[in-house]
Amino acid sequence: MPDYHRDLLFLIHDVARLLRVDADKRARLHGMTRAQWAILIWLQRQPGLSQKELAEILEVEPITVARLIDRLEARGAVERRPDPRDRRIWRLHLGPPSAEMLAEIDHQRGEITKMLLAGLDPATLRATTDALVTMKSNLMAARRLDPDPAPAASQPETV
What distances in angstroms separate CA 95 from CA 50, 68, 72, 85, 139, one per listed residue? Predict the structure, then answer.
């Protein structure tokens, strides 16, 4: 029987879950949600994303993003601007209050990183980071080869 306390897949899942829980708690202390933090970070990285593009990145439904944007827009942190080429699309941009929010998010990310890496020496951190980059690359390559695998049972039979 496998030792699930040392099983790589379980560990990756558990670490990711615990990070989400910690980030949720930190965001709530600042009157926000982790999803709102993610939106601000993505808009800082890629200003002008549409709500649909942001929904795809965050892997949530567009209506969920719309509601989150509504709340951020009410705080002045995000602005909806019409797309110059398609009036049906709203482009999202950071508003002035987002600078302070992003500074707090950066501070919290630093605190999370410090907590997460406590007790790890630089060589272990480098090796772990390299391994995770390779794993991510492997998964992305597999995804490109088969972006939407259909279950074998649903494949039409050929006679």
Answer: 15, 15, 9, 22, 35
Instruction: Give per-10-residue mean pLDDT for the chain (159 aa).
Output: 82 95 96 96 97 94 95 97 92 97 97 96 96 94 74 44
- The answer to whether residues 50 and 89 touch, using CB atoms and an 8 Å cutoff, is yes
> Per DSSP, what are the bridge partners of residue 93?
79
In the block, residue with structure tokens 């705080």: 75
CATH of the domain at 17: 1.10.10.10
Expressed as residue numbers, the domain containing 26 is: 8-143
Q: For the range 65-70, what are the long-range contacts, defined as Cβ-Cβ under 8 Å and sequence gap of 24 or more?
A: 65/39, 68/33, 68/35, 68/36, 68/39, 69/39
Contacts of 157 (CB under 8 A, 6+ apart): none
**In-domain check, residue 156:** no
CA distances from 26 to 39, 100, 135, 151 (A): 16, 15, 28, 39
Phi/psi of residue 92, nearest 5 degrees? -105, 135
Give the number of domains in the chain: 1
